[in-house]
Amino acid sequence: MAARTLPNMVITGTPGVGKTTHCELVAERTGLKHLSVNEIVKDRECHEGWDDEYQSWIVDEDKLLDAMEDMQVSTKGGFIIDWHACDLFPKSWVDLVVVLRVDSATLYDRLTERKYPEVKLQENIDSEIMEVLLQEARESYDEEIVVELRSNTADEMDGNVDRIEQWLKQWKEDNAGGA
Ligand code: ADP
């Protein structure tokens, strides 16, 4: 296990649940770094091209993990990883997995606003209803580090950020000598 002096967390969930908004708030509040996987994939070309139908990059996971290693994610820690999947990150990198959840009507509105293609919109709503990301998180990590949080309203988001901040405080106390 790496002797990280700061933990890493993954904030995950179906597109539109509020990952980026949460990550930005948590970063502001805690000083941890917001690591947008989307931006790394784009900027460091960790992809095998563009999928026109889904309007998204086809991610090359090996390249992505190498890029994250270069950023010292596993050794230094202190990152809030923002991505709509979580099973690709090695268990040893991750100290907390937050799965954001939202009601399907709210998700529909958010994704419509984003002008998602119909096929992508429907798939994401189905995925949220079927709890795909929650299952993925539970299958990939120890259950005690997976937390499911609601993200329908600004109040819920505030409460979530408070909770994550508290968790970080506790982690620092528990790991005063490094992870
Ligand atoms: P994601 O990164 O998961 O795709 P975003 O953070 O981009 O989601 O959020 C999608 C949209 O929903 C944004 O317009 C954001 O302001 C809004 N939003 C996200 N979470 C909440 C929330 N808890 N309450 C109200 N609006 C939210």
Explain this structure to me?
This protein has 8 helices and 7 strands; from the N terminus they run βαβαββααββαααβα. With 179 residues, the protein is an alpha/beta fold. The protein has a single domain, classed as P-loop containing nucleotide triphosphate hydrolases (Rossmann fold), CATH 3.40.50. Helix 1 packs across helix 8 and helix 5 packs antiparallel against helix 6. The longest helix has 21 residues. The N and C termini lie close together (7 Å). It binds adenosine-5'-diphosphate. The site of adenosine-5'-diphosphate (ADP) has 15 residues, from helix 1 and helix 8.
Please state the second-level CATH architecture. 3-Layer(aba) Sandwich
Assign the CATH class.
Answer: Alpha Beta
Order of helices and strands: EHEHEEHHEEHHHEH
Q: How large is the share of residues in beta strands?
A: 15-25%
**Individual helix count:** 8
User: What's the helical proportion of residues?
Assistant: 40-55%
The number of domains: 1
Strand order of the largest sheet: 2-5-1-6-7
The biggest beta sheet is recorded as: 5 strands, parallel
Structural class: alpha/beta
CATH superfamily: P-loop containing nucleotide triphosphate hydrolases
- Secondary structure: number of strands: 7
